[in-house]
Amino acid sequence: MLEYAGRRLLYGILVLLLMVTFVFVVMRLVPGDVVMLQLADAGAVTEEQIQAIEKELGLDKSIGAQLADWVVHAMRGDLGTSLWSKKPVAEMIVERLPVTLQLTGMSVIIAILIGIPIGVISAVKHNSILDNLLRVLAVGGLSIPNFWLGLILITVLSIFFNWIPPLGYQSFLENPLVNLQQMILPAIVLAVALSASIIRMTRSALLEVLHSDFIRTVRAKGAKESLVIYKHALRNSLVSVITLIGLQIGTLLGGTVVLESIFSLPGLGSLIFETVSSRDYPVVQSTVLVFGGMFLIVNLIVDLLYGWIDPRIRNS
Amino acid sequence: MEQIPIDSHFAGNQTQLSQKKLAKFFSDCKRFIITQPIGAISLAFIFLVVLVAIFAPVIAPYDPVAQNRQAFLAAPSGEHLMGTDDLGRDVFSRIVFGSRISLLVGFASVFFSMIAGIVFGVISGYFGRWIDMVIQRVMDAIMGIPPLILALFIAALLGPAIRNVIIALVIVETPRFARIVRGEMLRIREMNYVEASRSVGASVFRIIYKHALPNMVAPIIILSSLAFGASIIAEASLSFLGIGTPPPHPSWGLMLSGASRYMENAPWLVLFPGIALGLCVLAFNLLGDALRDFLDPKISS
Amino acid sequence: MKRKHWMAVFFLLFGVFLLGACSEKTATEENGPGNDEASDDPKYGGTYTIVTAADPDMLDPHRSSSIYTHGYMGLVYNKLVTYEIGPDVDYTDYNIVPDLAEDWEISEDGKVYTFHLREAYWHDIEPVNGRQVAAQDVVATMNRIMTLPGHQASLLQEVEKVEAADEKTVVFTLKQPLMPFLNFLANHFMWILPQEAVDGEIDLTTTAIGTGPFMLENWEDNVKATFVKNPNYFEEGKPYIDKVQYLVIPDVGAQIAAFRTGEADAISLISPEEIDNILKTNPDTVINEVLIPTQIQVAMNMEREPFDDLRVRKAISMAIDRKNAVEQIFGGGEVSAPVNPHLSEWTLPKEEREQLQPYDPEEAKKLLAEAGYPDGFETTIMATNAYGEQPVRMAQWVVEDLRAIGIDAELEIVEYATFYTERYPKKEYDLVVTYQTYFQEADEWLRTQLLSDSTRNWFGVNDPELDKMLNEQRIILDEEERKQKVYEIQRYVLEKVVNPIPLVTNSVFSPRHPYVKNYHPHASYGNIHMKDIWLDKE
Questions:
Q1: Is the Cβ pair B148, A19 closer than 8 Å?
Q2: 10-residue stretch averages of pLDDT, chain A, 316 residues long
Q3: Which site in A12, B131, C328, C356 is 20 to 30 Å from A240, CA atoms measured?
Q4: Pick from C1, C150, C247: which is nearest to A151 by CB?
Q5: Distance CA B98, CA B253 (A)
Q6: How far apart are CA B39 and CA B28, in angstroms?
Q7: DSSP output for chain A
Q8: Cα nearest neighbour of A135 on chain B
Q9: Do the beta carbons of residue C258 and residue A167 sit within 8 Å?
C-alpha cells in the first residue's frame, strides 16, 4: 500500500514537472512581454533600461536556464517573487489557497449531503413519480451554468431579501461565522453539478446492488429493508461516489474561478487570472502547479480510499 | 453526428456492403428512438438548434449587431420579442445568432481535438516504447491541470477571440480523446490476428483502419457528445469572464456577462441567454447519456 | 454584478496604468441634500469605510502608477507642494499650496527653486521612530524617482541637480526654465519618502511610513486596507476621523448592498445605471459626479492608408455621435478636446469643443468621397478589455457610426499585454479606441501625444509647425499668454491634425451617506481630502 502510494506520488511529481514546463513554454511563446509592460509608462525607453529590468527580474538568462533555476528553487520550496509586486510567490499563494480549498471542500460535503440521500430515495422508489422528478432535477442541475446560477442567486437574495454575504473576506480562523456566511452561497452553487452527478451515480449503483444476488440472499435471510440498504448497498455504492469526486475535482477547481469572481473571494483562481495578463511568470507557474498538485493529491486520496473501502482492490 | 462519416467510410468500395450497412444504420436509429426516447428528443432539439443556426438570418428579425439608438434597454414587446440590450440591439436576434457561436465552438473544438486525439493516440498506442512514454506524460501533464483553469490560462494569454477559445478547448480536450484511442490500440496490439495481418504484410494504416477504428467509434461518439456540451459551457464561462468571444459577437456567455448589472432594471437580459445556454447544454448532456446507454449497455444499469 | 468592475479588478489593475475606469475621486456637483453645513462644528472620531473595486498590487508609489496605489499612499505620504482643496475650490482647480515645503523661492531666470521645509515628523514607527523630516529625505526621494524607470522620471527630466542647502532647505536646479515645474512636483508620483525607505530599510512594496494624516495599520491584499489617525500630523487638529478603511469588493451588486445596509459609508465609484437603484432605497444618498481626469479617444495610424489623408480623418471625426454616446454609454460627461476637460482652465471652452467637432454624417460621406472613398473602405478597430466595459462599448458605438458612412470596421479586442507592448506602441493597428493615460498638465496632454518624436506618439503625428508651437508654449512665463497659446494649439490640432480624435471625458459617480461631512475631493490622485472629512453620526 505504502509503496503503491509512493510510486504514485513520484509519478505525480514527474507530471507536475512537465506541467510547469508546458506552462512556462506556452507563456514565453505568446506575444506580450513583461519588461515592456513595466516600461509602458516610462517615456523614452533605452536599451540599458530594458536590460536593467531584465536583469532585475532574472529574465536575462536563456529560457532553459530560467526554467531550470525556477524548478531547482521550487523543489526547495522557493517559488520565486512576483515580477510586479516583488512579494514572495509562496506567500501570495498561501494567502489565497485557503479560499480555494475551503470552497472546494465545502461544496464536496454539500454535494454528498444532498446527493446521497436523494440518490437513495430515487433508487428505493425507483420508477415512481418522485424518482422521475428527482432524475429530471439531477440532469437539470448538471446543465445549469454555474455562473448563471450564482448571478441569479445573489441578485434575488439581495433584491428580495436584502441579504448579502458579509463583506471583506475573513478566513475561517479569523471569524468562522462571517466566513461561513461568505462561503456558503458559492459552495452551494458549486455543489449543484456534483450533487446532480452523485444522485445519478448513487441511484444506478444502488439499483445494481439491490438487484444483485448478494442482496437477495441477505434479504432472504430476513434482514430489515432499511438495514439492507444502509449497511450493504450504500457501502458498495460509496466506491462509485468516491470515483466520481476524483473525476469531478477538476471541474470543481475550475468552477471556483468563476464563483470567486462573482462572490468577490480572493482565491487562487482569480490570482491566475490577474497575473496572466500582467505576464507575472513565476506567479502563474506556481499557481498552475498548485492546481495540478491539488488535482493530483485528491486523486491519490481517492485511490487510497478505494483500498480502504473495498479491500479487494487493495489486494489486487 | 460523427457516426455518419465514419460509418460510410467503412462501407468502402463495396456497394452491396454499404447497403447492408445503411439498412443496419436505419434499424439502429429506430432502436435508439424506441429505447432512448429522451435521447431522441434531445437529438431533435439539437437538430432544431442547428437549423436555427443555419437559418439565423431568416429567423432573426434584426441584424444582431445593429444598434437601435431609439431603443436602449427596451422591455420585451411585439417589436422586440426579448427586448433590447444596453446598445439597443435586439436580444432575440442575438440569441438566434448566438447559437452559431455555441455550435461553432462546440463543433470545432470537438472535431479538432478528436482528430488530434486520434493521431496522438494511434501513434502512442502503435509505436509504444519511448514515443508512447513521451506522449502519455505530456497528455497526463495537460490533464493534470483542471480543464477550465487550463482554458482560462490559454485564452487569457491569447486574448479574446473565438479562434483562441477553440484553441484553448482543443488543448484541453485532446488528451481525453487520445487516452481512449491509445487504450484501444494497446488492446488490439496484443491480439493475434493483428500479428497475423502484420506478418502477411498488411500496412500500418490498414490494420488501424480495419481493426482499431471500429472499436473506438462508440466511446468516441459518447465522449464527443459530452465534450460538445462541456465546450459550450466553457465558451460561455470564458466569455462571461471577458476572455472568450469578444464583443460585438452575440455569444450567450458574453451577453450574460454584460447584462448582469442590469439585473434589477432589465432582467430579460439575464434570463433569456441563460435559458438558451442551459437548454442547449442540457440537450447535449441528455444525448450523451442516451448514447452511452445505447452503445455501451454494460456501463449503466 | 460583475462585469465591468470585475474586469477592472482583474485586468486593469494588475497592469500598470489604469486609470480611467476607476477614478477614485469625487466631487464637484452635488446632487441631493445633506451636504456640509458650514455652521456645524466638526466631530472627531469614527471609522470611514469605503468600498472599492480593487486595490493596489504594490504600495511603492514610485514604481506603480496605479490609481489604487496612489489612492492609498496619499493618506500616508506628503509631497513638497500639493493642490488646494476646500469648499470654495473646484475639483479641477490646480492651485499649488504648501505641503511639506512651507514656502519657496524661484530665481529670476526660472531655473533655481529653493524650498523651505516645515516642521514635520515621520510616523512613529520603526525604523524612523517619529524623527523630524530633513532636507536629505527630499533629496534621496528625488534621486530615487529620477533613477527608477517610469513616466515620473520624465517629470523630472529637466532637473539638473537636487541638493540640501541645510537641514531644512532643498534646492532644485533646472537645465532650463520650466513653467509647469511646480505642477510636476505636486504630481502624485512625488510623494516624499524617509531616507531609510530609499536605503532599503523599509519594504516599500508592502508597507509605508510617511508624514501624512494617516498611518497604514494593515493591508491585506485584495481584501482590505486600514489606516489610523496620525496623532503627530503637522496640520493642527486634523484629521478628524480615527480610522479609514477600504474594503475591496469587485462585485457591483455586493458593493451596493454593502452601501444599502450601512456597512460602507461610501462607494469609490459606481456606474450611472446603478445610481437610480441606490436612490430608490436610500433617497438621501449624496452622489458626487465628476469628470475623470482622462478621456477616451479614437486614434488612427497615420503611417497606414487611408489615415494619412486629413479628409479621411476628418470624416471619421464627423461620423461619431459623441453627444449621445456621453449619455448612453457613460451616463454623463463632456465632449473632449486635445487637452482633457478636467483641466478646466486649459481645455477649450465647452461650446467651442462641440462646435469644432460637429456630428455630421452627410458631410463625412462627402469628405470620404473627396478622398477617393465614395463607398467607404474596410478596416479594423482595435480595443482592449483592460479598462472595463465602457471603452469596449464605446468602440462598438464607433463601429456602428462608421458603418453609417460606409466604413466597414471590424472590432478586434486585444489582450492587455499584447495591446500595450506589441500592437499599440509599435503602430500595428488601423484604428484604436481606448483611454489615454492620466495626465495632469496641459503640457503633458499635448507634448506627450503630439510631439513628432515623443515616445508616446503612437499615432504617427508628424507636423513640424505643431512641434514648434508645442515647444513654445512651455516656456511662456505669463500664464494668460501661455493659456492662449494652448488654446491655439488645440484649435490647430482639431482642424489640421485630427488625430487622435478626443471623444468623451465621462463622468464618474460616487455615492456616500449624508453624514459624511466636509467632503472636498480633488482631481489629483491621492485622496488628499481625507484629512478634512468628519462623520456626523453617533
A1: no
A2: 79 87 87 78 67 81 86 87 86 91 93 89 85 84 87 78 73 86 91 89 80 74 72 72 82 88 84 84 91 87 76 52
A3: A12
A4: C1
A5: 9
A6: 13
A7: -HHHHHHHHHHHHHHHHHHHHHHHHHHHHSS--HHHHHTTTSSS--HHHHHHHHHHHT-SS-HHHHHHHHHHHHHTT---B-TTT--BHHHHHHHHHHHHHHHHHHHHHHHHHHHHHHHHHHHHTTTSHHHHHHHHHHHHHHHS-HHHHHHHHHHHHHHHS---PPSS---TTT-HHHHHHHHHHHHHHHHHHHHHHHHHHHHHHHHHHHTSHHHHHHHHTT--HHHIIIIIIHHHHHHHHHHHHHHHHHHHHHHHHHHHHHTT---HHHHHHHHHHTT-HHHHHHHHHHHHHHHHHHHHHHHHHHHHH-HHHHH-
A8: B286
A9: yes
Paired strand residues for C214:
C229
Place of cell 523630524: C132
Residue A1: its pLDDT value, please? 66
Determine, for residues C2 and B86 on separate chains, whether the beta-carbon distance falls below 8 Å.
no
Contact partners for chain C, using 3 or more CB pairs closer than 8 A, are A, B
Mean pLDDT by 10 residues, chain B (301 residues): 40 64 84 86 94 95 90 89 91 95 95 94 85 89 89 90 94 92 80 67 72 79 88 92 90 84 81 92 87 67 36
List chain B residues with CB under 8 Å of A270.
Answer: none
The residue whose grid cell reads 478636467 is C342
Does the pLDDT value for residue C15 go beyond 50?
no
- DSSP SS3 for C57: coil
**Orientation of helix B15-35 relative to helix B3-11, angle to 10°:** 150
Mean pLDDT score, C84-103: 90
How far C43 CA lies from chain B's nearest CA (Å)? 37
DSSP codes, C346-396: TSPPHHHHHHHS---HHHHHHHHHHTT-TT--EEEEEEEGGG-HHHHHHHH
Grid coordinates representing C406?
A: 460606409
Condensed to tens digits (0 to 9), the pLDDT of residues B22-51 reads 888 888 888 888 888 888 999 999 999 999
User: Do C411 and B69 count as a contact with CB atoms less than 8 A apart?
Assistant: no
Q: Report pLDDT for C29.
A: 39
Amino acid at C257: A
Q: How far apart are CA A146 and CA A255, in angstroms?
A: 7
Best mutation target among C421, C422, C423, C457 (most A Cβ atoms within 10 Å) is C421
Q: Which residues of C touch B65 (CB under 8 A)?
A: 396, 399-400
CB A254 within 8 A of CB B147: yes
pLDDT one-digit tens code per residue, C332-377: 899 999 999 988 889 999 999 999 999 999 999 999 999 999 999 9
Instruction: At C129, list the grid cell.
Output: 521612530
* Model pLDDT for residues C175-201, shown as the tens digit of each residue: 988 888 998 899 888 999 999 999 999
The whole-angstrom distance between residue A97's C-alpha and the CA centroid of its chain comes to 11
pTM of this structure: 0.82
Burial of C168 by CB count in 10 Å (0-12 exposed, 13-18 middle, 19+ buried)?
A: middle
Q: Are C413 and B246 within 8 A, CB to CB? A: yes
Q: Which three cell numbers stand for residue C43?
A: 466631530
- Nearest chain B CA: its distance from C71 CA (Å): 26
**Local structure of B203: helix, strand or coil:** coil
* C249 inside 8 A of chain A by CB: yes
- Digit-coded pLDDT (tens) for C257-269: 788 888 899 998 8
Distance from CA of B149 to the nearest CA of C (A): 15
> What is the Cα–Cα distance from C463 to C445, expressed in whole angstroms?
16
How confident is the model at residue C326, as a pLDDT?
Answer: 92
Residues in chain A with CB shorter than 8 Å from the CB of C15 are 37, 277-278
C window 190-219, beta carbon within 8 A of A: 205-206
